[in-house]
Design brief:
A hairpin with a 3-residue loop joins strand 4 and strand 5. The protein has a single domain, classed as Hotdog Thioesterase (Thiol Ester Dehydrase, Chain A). It is built from three helices and seven strands. The termini are far apart. Strands 1, 2, 3, 4, 5, 6 and 7 form a seven-stranded mixed beta sheet that branches. It is α+β, with helices and mostly antiparallel strands.
């Protein structure tokens, strides 16, 4: 478990941080974390974010979120013995979607290693159709985030 850092306490942009343990099988033949594994890290941190903000895990059998788009930029290589922390935030709330930004930071130097921009769509799992982002979610996100934009309001 990573200790709380000044970045966590004073970061003006992010309010949620998830430590991630790098596993041996995350490493490729080049000796660094394989680029495909970063998606697993972002998924793990995303679930942690929503559990924290909503006060419970996302339900998979009612209204939930699915990943519709993701773009990952790789800034530096991450190695097996690095300590990393994933910073997560919702940057924009739309009618049926959320835009999430995440960053991988190498600790303790807080060096940016990778960043992700994702679009998550709110769906009704029973009908498999998109639905409006629940008002309760919007309220909890805006209460948690220091700054969040709205696409439609």
């Amino acid at each position: 478990m990573l200790k709380k850092t000044n970045k966590e306490e004073n970061d003006p942009e992010f309010s949620h941080f998830t430590p991630v343990n790098i596993r041996f099988n995350d490493i490729d033949i080049m000796g660094h974390v394989n680029n495909a594994v970063f998606q697993d890290y972002f998924d793990y941190a995303r679930l942690s974010y929503f559990s924290k903000v909503f006060g419970e895990p996302l339900s998979w059998d009612s209204i939930t979120l699915i990943l519709a788009h993701i773009c990952i930029d790789y800034h530096q290589t991450v190695h097996l013995n690095d300590e990393i922390l994933i910073a997560s935030k919702i940057a924009l709330i739309g009618n049926k979607s959320l835009q999430m930004t995440q960053e991988v930071h190498k600790m303790p130097e807080k060096k940016l290693m990778a960043s992700s921009h994702a679009v998550l769509v709110s769906i009704d799992a029973a009908s498999n159709c998109s639905v409006s982002v629940p008002e309760k979610w919007k309220e909890r996100i805006t209460a948690f985030e220091k700054k969040v934009g709205f696409k439609y309001r």
